[in-house]
Design goal:
Helix content is about 80%, strand content about 0%. With about 300 residues, the chain is mainly α.
Length: about 300
């Protein structure tokens, strides 16, 4: 199947599973809590009883399981090349895990710079709906991140940090990036296009640039190592750290608001960029040396 047709088939498959997932999620919420509660989630009425439980049900059924199912069904049953399209191998140097950790940590100032740049961009009037959609999404995210105790934090780290990282990486750096590599014949083009699609998928205009850059990092981690688990690790670090920081701020253990985008200065931005680029070269060299050892 031509890669262009593969992308088209995958899009249709995802849409179909997404519709089914939404219907299942809506059905479960309606059966458990009634139609009024379902409408409350749709209108982001957080004061409604069982709002949070209903939101979690819809999140898992309509998003998490949908993304996972689409990627797995496509790789295993449509293309029938799960290793090439999901890249589940653990055959990579464990030094890469350390390098990913360092890159994700040191990239924070760079991500903040892109976020601040993004915030200064102005949407044209006909795209006002995007801002409204983003505000609703932020309210839903804030609801999911309301953590009263350490057990709530652990649940969010597992669900928002780990589970989300696995399913999104399976779909984007696994299936979509592989299709685009085969279509464009260029790793760089595939990584950047996938990163753009990854960021656009979240429908958050004012977070588009930093999320795209994270997608680029995730993309190169997979492209050079040949394993999806390097990007899953990076994605988990990003999401999990955000959850933990939010919990610590809510409990007044730390004073820095995780949503504050003014923690670093210009010098930090430049240093962050230089070190991240250097570490990416080290990552690439280490990954390729491991591949040569495996082959020869």
């Amino acid at each position: 199947m031509h890669p262009g047709m593969q992308l088209f088939v995958f899009a249709l498959l995802f849409i179909g599973i997404y519709i089914v997932g939404n219907l299942i999620g809506a059905g479960i919420v309606t059966a458990l809590y009634g139609l009024k509660t379902l409408m409350a989630v749709a209108t982001v009425d957080t004061t409604t009883p069982h709002f949070l439980a209903s939101l979690w049900i819809l999140q898992i059924a309509s998003t998490t399981l949908t993304i996972f199912s689409a990627a797995v069904v496509f790789a295993y049953y449509v293309i029938k090349e799960p290793q090439d399209y999901l890249k589940l191998s653990f055959r990579f140097s464990w030094i890469l895990i350390v390098l990913v950790f360092a890159i994700m940590l040191i990239s924070n100032p760079l991500i903040e710079f892109l976020s601040n740049l993004n915030q200064k961009m102005v949407l044209p009037p006909f795209l006002k709906w995007m801002k409204d959609s983003e505000e609703s999404a932020q309210k839903l995210t804030a609801a999911l991140l309301q953590m009263k105790n350490v057990w709530d934090m652990i649940l969010d780290v597992l669900a928002i940090g780990l589970l989300t990282a696995i399913v999104e990486e399976f779909m984007f750096r696994g299936v979509i990036q592989t299709i685009l590599v085969r279509w464009t014949k260029s790793i760089h083009a595939a990584v950047w296009i996938t990163a753009i699609l990854f960021s656009a998928f979240h429908i958050e205009f004012f977070g588009f640039l930093p999320r795209m850059m994270l997608g680029v990092l995730f993309g190169y981690f997979v492209a050079w190592s040949g394993s999806i688990w390097t990007s899953v690790w990076a994605h988990f670090l990003n999401n999990g750290a955000a959850v933990v920081a939010t919990y610590l701020f809510q409990q007044k253990i730390i004073k820095s608001d995780p949503d504050d985008q003014h923690l670093f200065n210009t010098g930090s931005y430049i240093i962050s960029l230089v070190i991240v680029v250097f570490l990416l070269f080290v990552y690439r060299k280490t990954a390729f040396e491991k591949k040569q050892i495996a082959v020869y």
